[in-house]
Structures are given as structure tokens and as C-alpha cells.
Specification:
Pfam families: ABC_tran. One of its GO terms (molecular function) is ATP hydrolysis activity. Residues 2-223 form the ABC transporter domain. The protein is an alpha/beta fold and 297 residues long. The protein has two domains: 3-212, P-loop containing nucleotide triphosphate hydrolases (Rossmann fold); 217-280, ACT domain (Alpha-Beta Plaits, 2-Layer Sandwich), CATH 3.30.70.260. Helices cover 34% and strands 22% of the residues. The protein is built from eleven helices and twelve strands. The chain has helices spanning 34-42, 65-69, 86-97, 104-110, 126-138, 156-171, 183-189, 207-214, 229-233, 259-269, 283-291, and strands at residues 3-5, 8-11, 23-28, 71-74, 144-148, 175-179, 192-197, 200-205, 218-224, 241-246, 249-254, 273-279. The chain has a six-stranded mixed β-sheet, sandwiched between helices. α8 packs across α11 (283-291). The model has no long low-confidence stretch (mean pLDDT 91). The protein binds adenosine-5'-triphosphate (ATP). Adenosine-5'-triphosphate binds next to α1.
Length: 297
């Protein structure tokens, strides 16, 4: 589908299948079209070309509240009424979503806000507001949950707690679509990655799929017995770039398909070797690779 604003394609001829129960990370530069894609999925905006089905239905079709109630959304910047408490806020959203008010306390407990339930939202920290945002997204026990940059501004402990909740939801079979710029944490927490650039989808798959497609070099750090770095460097096979970092450390760069051969060679011919550390391309490396102009989808 394509969505155009003021003559510019915010989402440009993009096709995407998300399976039930999949957790998908949407990555892309500022203005790549991630939020627009989420709004298309939610039915908040309609595509100018193409179409979209979510849970088998057109999300923006008038009167289809049943489908919309099965979607949860945590926007990038959620606004609350500051004069209301967390419990009052959640009850307000629960009425809109026709979720039983008697269940709100359970949802507040799930996001760790029970103790602050009766505190005014204006007195909440950024992390507490974010958790309240997640609580409202969980109303209606959604089958599909859209989280737009949900961990921005959260400390490492809260991020971990946040992803623990996301994992539980995944285990319950909820489909999760999450947009973020926090690549390191996504690497550990999402199964499928979708990379957007200027409204287009430029790569998608698991991190292993993306590694295979990008075929970036692998880095291996070798640690030898003290003073044996130079002797070890002489035994490095042809076609492998070798950089000495000190008298007992070497950094190798090699094509990924040679990884096993080179490790086998080192283990049989370099008795001075003390330790080996293999660094596969990270999600950040892959993201930078695919964002480069000229990489074909
Ligand atoms: N309501 C709108 N009216 C006009 N242009 C819009 C509107 N919403 C988004 N755009 C434009 O569409 C493009 C994609 O914006 P979008 O917010 O989807 O990007 P994003 O990937 O979510 O960015 P970020 O990472 O900065 O949040 C941008 O050029 C933006 O200016």
C-alpha cells in the first residue's frame, strides 16, 4: 500500500505479511514511515493505494468496533489528563474500549502501578507514564498490539521489565508490532525485523535471515599466550585480514562463509591460542548496511 501526504509518499508501495503471534520490530530513520504504517494498521488513516487486512478485516471500515477493540496501541507520545489518577485514567480508557472496570486493578498490577494507582498522573515519572500507556494498550485483551517507540526514556531496569511483559504477551499468542530506534535491545527481544527507508520496506526477516542476505564479514578476536601474537599472526590463512592489537591479541576479519574453516585451521595449527571471541554482525551493523542507498529490497 501507499500513503501520501502533501504529494510525498510516507509509506511507499509497501507489502508486509505479519503472522498471528509474531513479534515484529519496525526499524527506520526518522520520517521513514513507521508511525504512518502503524496508523494504517490501526485504521486511523487509510491507504491511498493498496489495501490492508487485519484479523481478516479492513481496519478503517466504519462501524467495525469489534475488530478495533482487538487492537491495542501505545502511541509514541501519549497524552493523559494530569489531574486524574492512574486508576481514573485507566477507567476512562476502559469505558471507551468497553473493558470491564473491575479488571482495571489487574492490568495496573500487571504493569507494576498498583502502588501508584491513586497518585495523580502529573506526579508520575516518565517510566510510570509509559507503564500507564501500556496498561491502556492492554485494555480489551488485544490480539494485536502496536507499540510506537515504547522504551524511549526508560531506564535499563524498566526496559527489561517492559520486555518481560511483552514476552508474556507473546507467549499468550498476542501479535506485537513495535517500532524503535533502540537496536541493541531489539536484537534480544524481537523475532522478525522489518527495515524501512523513505517509506519503502528494504529488508525483512529474522536476524539470521538478514545476516545471510547482507553477508557482512565476521570479526574474530584471538588472544594468545603472552608475547605470542606475532608468531600467531604468521599462521593466519590467506584472504583473512589480520590486525595486531598488542603482543597477545589479534583481530581477524574474514568472509562469513570461511568462519568454520578458519577456526578449524587455528585450532590445529596455533597451539599458542588462549581464547577466541567471535563477533557476528550486530543488528546495528545490519541496519547501517541496509540503510545504505543502493541496497536492493
Ligand atoms: N499527518 C501528516 N501530515 C503530513 N505529513 C505527515 C503526516 N504524518 C506524517 N507525515 C510525514 O510522513 C513521513 C513519515 O512520517 P512518520 O511519522 O510515519 O515517520 P517515522 O518513521 O515514524 O518517524 P520517527 O522515527 O521520527 O517517529 C514524514 O515525512 C512525515 O513528515
Amino acid at each position: 500500500m501507499t500513503k501520501t501526504y502533501d504529494g510525498q509518499n510516507a509509506v511507499d508501495d509497501l507489502s508486509l505479511d505479519v503472522l498471528a503471534g509474531e513479534s515484529v520490530a519496525l526499524l527506520g530513520h526518522n520520517g521513514a514511515g513507521k508511525t504512518t504504517l502503524i496508523k494504517l494498521i490501526l485504521g486511523l488513516v487509510r491507504p491511498d493505494k493498496g489495501n490492508i487486512r487485519i484479523l481478516g478485516r479492513e481496519p478503517s471500515s466504519p462501524g467495525d468496533d469489534k475488530t478495533r477493540c482487538q487492537l491495542g496501541y501505545l502511541p509514541e507520545n501519549i497524552a493523559f489528563y494530569n489531574g486524574m489518577s492512574g486508576a481514573e485514567t485507566l477507567a476512562f480508557f476502559a469505558r471507551l474500549k468497553r473493558h470491564p472496570l473491575s479488571d482495571c486493578a489487574r492490568i495496573l498490577a500487571r504493569v507494576g502501578l498498583s502502588d501508584a494507582a491513586h497518585k495523580r498522573v502529573s506526579h508520575y515519572s516518565k517510566g510510570m507514564r509509559q507503564r500507564l500507556g501500556l496498561a491502556q494498550a492492554l485494555l480489551g485483551n488485544p490480539r494485536v498490539l502496536m507499540l510506537d517507540e515504547p522504551t524511549t526514556g526508560l531506564d535499563p531496569e524498566l526496559r527489561t521489565a517492559f520486555y518481560d511483559i511483552v514476552r508474556e504477551l507473546e507467549e499468550d499468542g498476542v501479535t506485537i508490532i513495535l517500532s524503535s530506534h533502540a537496536l541493541t535491545e531489539l536484537e534480544a527481544h524481537t523475532r522478525k525485523i522489518v527495515i524501512m527507508r523513505k517509506g519503502c520496506l528494504i529488508a525483512s526477516g529474522t536476524i539470521d535471515d538478514l545476516r545471510r542476505r547482507a553477508n557482512l564479514p565476521v570479526h574474530i578476536r584471538l588472544i594468545t599466550r603472552p608475547g605470542m601474537g606475532a608468531a600467531c599472526a604468521e599462521k593466519i590463512p590467506e584472504g583473512v585480514t589480520c590486525e595486531r592489537i598488542n603482543d597477545h591479541g589479534l583481530d581477524l576479519t574474514l568472509p562469513s562463509e570461511r568462519k568454520i574453516d578458519v577456526l578449524r585451521h587455528l585450532s590445529t595449527t596455533v597451539p599458542e591460542l588462549d581464547d577466541v571471541d567471535i563477533k557476528l554482525p550486530s543488528l546495528n551493523d545490519l541496519y547501517m548496511h541496509f540503510q545504505k542507498e543502493g541496497v536492493a529490497p
